[in-house]
């Protein structure tokens, strides 16, 4: 559901901010578009949010043809192949250095494998729109983690952000109406929330990591490692799936890997060079909104009032968190403050 990692290069010789880690390193020579106007970049940003929002109902649709772990594996494989082609075409294929291995492993294991697998399984029991909103609670868990583990200062905006996020969760679960006796509801919602926690763990590690190789160059290797790890996991838990897939499923997998992962990264790096990073962060708040809208159109998941109220509260929470941190958020594989990865 999420996209995984991409760096923001603002200008040659300036500071490069990594969406995954929150770290700053010397910028690389720009290789993407440099003449894009802010208007066109903003339009492209909306298209990226639409693309990633659409990934949520697509993940739900794929469950009709494939078991959840095989969906994550095949989507990751398509994404890795597309990233390989893109990196070669852009001259950005590099061999990771030894100091890069911890962040390659952490993103692959915590986010691309564990978090993505939990979301895919959770989608069997939870609507796609609700899952998109639950996944957006990641910044709520990052705030206390950053304070306790990284010693980051927490201002009143961050505290207000966390409180609004918790209020959004309460509204989403609507304790008086939630089916607490339904094990499927508890299981599905719990898995997506657990996925958000693993996503937050990945973000916290990446913030502490000292970057050597620019993050975008590592994305292919992270996706490749995730693909390798997911294969035996899928075999062990779900066995060998049917070797004949309908054209619909193949098309959806191609969309998730090519548009949701590879081209999504490339487009976002282009956007980040044309508009301020805070604008990018706030623009990506459209992802769960589009996720709900697309789920309504494609799956008939008409949003009820608790979902709408929770979405408003959580989006406001994430927006305040972004403004409080003053740090770019440029990936769907991380939280909106640090990035929106991969969300697929």
TrEMBL record:
Its main location: membrane. It is found in: Cell membrane. The keyword Nucleotide-binding does not apply. Pfam families: EamA (PF00892). InterPro entries: AA-Vitamin_Transporters, EamA_dom, EmrE-like. It comes from the Bacteria. The chain crosses the membrane at residues 43-63, 69-89, 101-121, 133-150, 155-173, 185-206, 218-237, 249-268, 280-299, 305-324. It is a multi-pass membrane protein. SUPFAM superfamilies: Multidrug resistance efflux transporter EmrE. Keywords: Cell membrane, Membrane, Transmembrane, Transmembrane helix. The keyword Cell wall biogenesis/degradation does not apply. Residues 42-172, 188-321 form the EamA domain. This is Permease of the drug/metabolite transporter (DMT) superfamily. It comes from Paraburkholderia steynii. The lineage of its organism: Bacteria, Pseudomonadati, Pseudomonadota, Betaproteobacteria, Burkholderiales.
